[in-house]
Amino acid sequence: MRRVGFLLLVSTALLLQACAGTARTRNPYDRSCGCWKGAGSATTKSVKSPPAEPVASGTRETGLASFYASDLDGKPTASGEAFSSADHTCAHRAWPFGTRVKVTSVKSGKSTEVRVNDRGPHVSGRILDLSRAAADDIGLNVEGVGEVEAEVVQ
After folding, report:
1. Is-above-0.85 flag for pTM?
2. How far apart (Å, rounded) are the C-alpha atoms in residues 78 and 96?
3. Full DSSP string of 136-149
4. Strands 89-91 and 111-118
5. What are phi and psi of 138, to 5 degrees?
6. pLDDT confidence tier of residue 54, bands split at 50, 70 and 90
7. In what order do the strands lie in the sheet with 29-30?
8. 3 state DSSP class of 81
9. What proportion of the chain, given as a percentage, has pLDDT over 90?
């Protein structure tokens, strides 16, 4: 019985020693906020995501677009810049920040050019969230939501 207890103690000690020597790595991508995390001493802080692959010029999507509320002016976008409803910008779920997009209203035929600087829209079935200035250009500000064609033009 003493021998079994001794072997159990030794095997536990060896196991603990082996675990102490292995470094555990954490995945730096946090799905809860959709951002990459950097190493911090007491806390983990968000850092910019790695650059996304450029989207080919001429790539198109058709779907619903809406526009941001003006009360978001001055608040940071996912790219880090402050949102301005007067700028011609948009949010897209995947296209890289800085991508230039021609947005055309299917209903009015009017178009405008915007730059991706945010992530979204966060409403199912929509492909873009536009700034107020861009929405005004294509007549989307009247109904609030409308079908558009988005084409990468860079």
Report:
1. no
2. 11
3. HHHTHHHHSEEEEE
4. parallel
5. -105, 5
6. confident
7. 29-30, 35-37, 46-47
8. coil
9. 56
Q: Mean of the pLDDT values across residues 58-63?
A: 95
- 151's CB contacts (< 8 A; 6+ apart) are 58, 59, 60, 101, 102, 104
Distance (Å, rounded) from C-alpha 130 to C-alpha 85?
9
**Quick count: other Cβ atoms within 10 Å of Cβ 21?**
7
DSSP 104-119: EETTT--EEEEEEEE-
Domains and CATH numbers, the chain: 60-152 (2.40.40.10)
Cα angle 151, 94, 125; round to 5:
75
Residues for the chain: how many in total?
154
Q: Tell me the backbone φ, ψ of residue 20, rounded to 5 degrees.
A: -65, -30
